[in-house]
């Protein structure tokens, strides 16, 4: 049985291909290598991933997709926790249709529920273990919200959303959680920060709490799948009177332009 199946012993990456171009391929591969190194999975033919992704696109005659790459420690005959000394990893690459934001989301923003972060504390590793994310996202959907934003018990520090980083806009600056083991260092978050800089908007990487969400002029959720989603309502309370602020809209448009150019 594959250890990915038995233990969730594996990692993954997901990234966009748009107009036959890989979006931020290098940082995604760098992060995948980092995840592999941390969990000690050796993939001798790592460099072939790009070729496989290209072949998949050609074989399916598509020019836009969300690519999913999963690497597990591979198959072993017994259910033994200890990692084997040598093993052949299993690799799968899937091209999913690109996820589009709805017109409603783009024009009026999404709604989010708040939930205590119940996940493990190595969120910097893009591991297959997403049960906490899945359970809370489902709860949000069942309650009629588009997504869920996590906060730490006690400190009320906002970490991330079910599959996105969270950025708030305050006093015309971006604020986002510092890079550490409590969040995934999102490629789209980093791209948003870089694009913001090019249009003169500064970013501060520091912790912020639930209250800061409600006093922000915009709350942004960033992910490779959807790029920037603007959140205008949290737990039924409007953010910035339910309106997307100028900088939020500008960043959304700047990202769309960058991806499509
Ligand atoms: N945090 C979590 C928990 C995620 O699953 C994702 C999406 N993979 C992100 C943040 C955003 O990361 P990225 O922008 O690299 O897709």
Report on this structure.
The protein has 261 residues and is an alpha+beta fold. The protein has two domains: 94 residues, D-amino Acid Aminotransferase, Chain A, domain 1 (2-Layer Sandwich), CATH 3.30.470; 158 residues, D-amino Acid Aminotransferase, Chain A, domain 2 (Alpha-Beta Barrel). It contains eight helices and 13 strands. The strands form two sheets. A six-stranded mixed barrel has the order 5-6-7-8-11-12. A four-stranded antiparallel β-sheet has the order 2-1-3-4. The mean pLDDT is 96. The structure holds 4'-deoxy-4'-aminopyridoxal-5'-phosphate. 4'-deoxy-4'-aminopyridoxal-5'-phosphate binds next to strand 8, helix 6 and strand 11. The site of 4'-deoxy-4'-aminopyridoxal-5'-phosphate (PMP) has 14 residues, from strand 8, helix 6 and strand 11.
Offer a quick outline of the entry:
About 30% of the residues lie in helices and about 30% in strands. The chain is an alpha+beta fold. It has two domains: about 5-95, 2-Layer Sandwich (D-amino Acid Aminotransferase, Chain A, domain 1); about 105-260, D-amino Acid Aminotransferase, subunit A, domain 2 (D-amino Acid Aminotransferase, Chain A, domain 2).
Mean pLDDT across all amino acids: 96
Structural class: alpha+beta
Into which percentage range does the β-strand content fall?
25-35%
Report the bound ligands by name, code or SMILES.
Answer: 4'-deoxy-4'-aminopyridoxal-5'-phosphate
H/E element sequence: HEEHHEEHEHEEEEHEHEEEH
* CA distance, first residue to last residue: 44 Å
What is the overall shape? globular
Strand order of the largest sheet: 5-6-7-8-11-12
